Amino acid sequence: MLAYIGRRISALLVILLGSTFLVYVAQGYSGDPSEALRGSTDPHVKAQLASLIRNLNLNVPPPARYFLWLKGVLGVFVGHFNLGLTRDRNPVSTYILAAVPVTIRLILLSTLLAILIGIGFGIISALRQYSRFDYALTFFAFLMYSLPIFWVAVLLKAYLAISFNNFLLNGSIAPAWIIFASFFSGVFWAAVISGTRQKVIAVFGIAAASTAVFLTLLSVTKWFTHPGLGPIMMLALGIGFAFAVTFVSTGLSNKAALRSSLTVVGIGFLLYFPVEYLLKKYANLLTLFIMAIVTITIAIATSYFFAKVDRRAVARTSLITSVIAGLLFIIDKLMKTWVPYINTDAIHQRPIPTIGQINDLLPAGNFWFSFLDSVLHLVLPTIALILISMAGYIRYSRGTMLEVLNQDYIRTARAKGLSERTVIMRHAFRNTLIPITTIVVVDIAGIIGGAIITERVFGWRGMGTLFITAIDTSDLNLLMGVSLIVSTLAVLANLVADLLYSALDPRIRVVGKK
Amino acid sequence: MTMFSRRSKLSEEVSGSDIFNKETEGLSQGQIVLKRFFRHRGAMVSLIVLFSLVTFVFSTLGFKILGIGYGGWWKYKITDLPALRTAGCSIELPGCPSLSLIPGKGFGLGDHPFGQDDLGRDYFSLVMRGAERSIEVMVVIGLVAAAVGITIGALAGFYRGLIDAILMRINDFIITIPIIVLGGVVSFHFGNKGILFLAFFLGVLSWGGLSRLVRGEFLTLREREFVDAARVAGASNRRIIFKHILPNAIGVIIVSVTLIMSGAILLESALSYLGLGVVAPDVSLGLLISQYQDSFTTRPWLFWYPGLLIIIIALSVNFIGDGLRDAFDPRQRRRISRKDRSAERAIATKK
Q: Which end of chain B is more exposed for a tag (fewer CB within 10 A), N or C?
C-alpha cells in the first residue's frame, strides 16, 4: 500500500511540474509585464524598467525562468518558500495567504450543502423512479445544469436580496404568497410521500394547511422583523429532529437510539440558559470550539449509557442529533443578534447584501455582529453555488442508486425479510456512497475553478480575483501562485479519490509491489 | 415511514421483459437504439427545438460558406444604429422590445423584437450573432475533443503497455489543469485571433474524460470473442479498431460528446463574461450578458434574452444526451405503462 502511494505521489509530482511549466511558458511568452511601462512618458521610466526587469528576471527567457521560479517553490522543503514577487514588488505568498481563506469560506458551506441536498434528492428520486416527482426533479436538475452562474447571480440579487430587504421593512406576508407557498408545499410533500390516491390527497391537505397556518402565524406575529426561537420552540424542534434522525439512522424500533437522542435534546434544553449566558459573556471562537467538544462528549456518553449492544449505531444517531441541537443554539443566538444588527447605521435595515464578503462599516469588536455579517454575506453566493452544483449530484446519485437497487444482494436482503428501511439505508445507500465519494472529491478541485466566476459576480476578493488581476496585468508570478494552489489541489483530490475508492470498496485492492 | 414503502414490481418485471422482447424482435441494434430514442419525449422535443433554433439563428443574419452566401432575412445588421423606438414604449424607456406572443394587434416580431440597447443597436441581431458564435464554439469544441479523445483513448486501450502508460500520463496532465485557468491565459492573449481559434484550443483541452471512457471501453471490448474471431479471420489492427470495436463503443462516445458540448457553451460564456474569451467588436452570449448586466434594473430585456438563449441551447443538448444515454444502454428497461399492458392483453386474446 505504502509503495503504491509513493509511486502515485511521484507520478503526481511529475504531472504537477508539467502543468505548471505549461502555464508558465504559455503566459511567459504571451504577456509582457513591462508593456505598460514602455509606453509611459515618465522621466524615470528607464530606471523603473530596469528594476522591474531585475526583480522579475525578465531578461531570462520563460522556459529557463521557470526553473528560477521552481527553485523558490522547492524551497518549501528547506524552509525558504518563495513564490517570487508581484509586479509591484510585494511577495506573492502574502496575497495568496490572504485569498485562500476567503475562497475556502465561499465554497465550503455551499459544497457541503449541495452534497447533502443533492444526494438526498437523488436517492428519493431513484426510490420513486418514473414518478411525477422523479420527472420534475430530472427536469429541474437539467435546468440547473444549463444555467450560467453569473446569470443566476444577477437574478438572485434582484429578486432575492432586494425584494427580501424590501419585504423586511414591513415583515408581513401577502395573502397571495401564503396561498402560493401552501399549495407548493402540499404538492411537494404529496410528491415525496407517494401512495394511494387517498393518501396523496391527505398528505397534500395536511402539508398545505400546516404551511398556511405556520406562515400566517409568522406574518401576524411579525416574526421576520423580530426573529427568535426561544427555549420552548427549540425543545419542540429538537424533539422533532431527534425522531427524524433516529428514523433515518437506525429506525424507530431501536428504542435505545431513540431514548439516547431524546436525552441529548433534553440535556440541551436544561442547559439553555447557562449556554446562552456563556455565549454572551465569552463571545469568541474558542468558546464555540469548546462547546462543540462538550456537545460531542455528551452525545457519546449518553449513547454509551443507553446502549448495551450495537453501540456504534446509537452513538451515531445521538451524535447527529447533538450536532443539530448545537446548530439550533447558534441559530437562536444569531436571531437574537438580528434586531440590533439591522438597526446599526452600517446595515440600515437592508440586511441581505448583494456584493462583497464583509461589511467594512460595521462597528468592530462585536463577535456576534461580525459572525452574522459573514453569514449574511454568504447567503447569495451559497444559494447560487448550491443551485449550480447540486444538479450533478442529483443526477449521479440517482443513477448510482438505481444501479445498486438492481443488484442481487438487494434482492437477497429483501428475500430474507429485512425491513425496507434497512434494505435502503444499510444495503443500498452505503454502496451508493462509494462511487459518489470519488465524484465529490474530484469535484471539489473543479469547484475552486468555478469559484473564479462566483467571486467575480459577488465581488469577493479571493483566489478568483487574484487570477483575473494576474491575467489582466500580465503578472506572471501571481498567476503561477494561483495556478500552483489550484493544480496541487486538483492533483491531491485525484489521489485521495483513488485511495478512498480502494479503502471503501473491499473488492478493489491495490496491487503493491512486494 | 412511507418514504421506504415498497412497491411490488416482481410480477411487472416478468411480463415487462416479454413486452420488451416482442418489441425488439427482428430489429438491428441501430434500429432498436433509434426506436428507443424516438420514444424519449424530452429528447425528441429538445431535438426539434434545437434544430429549429439553429436554422432560425443562422438564417437571420445570413452566412457565407465557400463563396456561396445568403444575405439573411433580418433587416438590421449588428453595426446598424437605427433611432430608438418610442411608439409603444414608456417615455423613460425608449427602445423596448416589440416581440409580442399574445394573438391580436401587434402580434409577431415587430421592429425590434428584443429591443435596443442605449445606443440604439438592434438587440435581436446582436443576440442572434451571439447565438451563432456560441453554437459554432460548441460544435468546434465538441468535434475537436471527440477527435482527440477517441484517438488517444482508442490507441491506449487497444495497444496497452507502454503506449497506454504514456498516453494516460498525458491524460492525467490534461485533467489536472483547471481548464478555466489555462483557457483563460490563452484566450486572453489570443482572443484577437478569432473565436474559432479559441474554440479549437479549448477543444484540445477538453478531451480528458472522454479518452478515459473510450480507453475503458476498448480495454473490455478487445478481450471479447468477436475480436478474436476477426483476428483469426486475418483482420488487420486498423480494421479491428474501426470496424469491430469502435462501432460498439459509439454509445459511450456520443453521450460523452453531448455532455462536453453542453459544458462548452457554458465555458465559452463564462470566459467571455470574465473578459477572457470573445472580445468586442465580436459578439457572444456571455459577452452580451457581461456588457449589459448593470442595466438589469433599467432595461431588463438586455439581460434576459441572451441568458434565455444560452439556457435553451444547453438544456436541449443535455436532454438529447440523456435520451441517447437511455437509448444506448442495453440494461435500461423501459417502464411498462398501462397502455402497453392492455396492448399485450389484446395480442394475447387474439391468439
A: C
